[in-house]
Amino acid sequence: MTNNSSQPSIIDSSALLAVIYNEKGMDSAKEYFDNSYMSVINAAECLIVLNRNGMPEDVAKNLLESIISKFLPCEYHDAELIAKVKNAHSKLGLSLADCTCISLGNKLGLQIVTADKEWQQVESNSQIICIR
To answer: What does pTM read for this prediction?
Structure first.
């Protein structure tokens, strides 16, 4: 499977925060934001980080909404998919938000964009694109 920035992508918190904070890989990440999706769990993780670093809640919320095309909710049946990712990769130390992002990409068959290198060790039905 080839990296295709024109295809819809699931964006991980780490990739979005890399763009917001002008970190390494931000230029690569930006390619995937035109048709981007993010779970509400990953959005919450971004809001927590932005707020903790001093950004007012309303500014952080508006910033996320200006970058991500659509936020996707999690439903009860997603819990099993998230738990399977977490259990299958327990040695990688993936967070709940990480597992949510990966399982959402798998569920929807969309490429996943992250800044977390350890995700390259994850077995996934979807292509995982690491921006760093």
So the answer is: 0.93
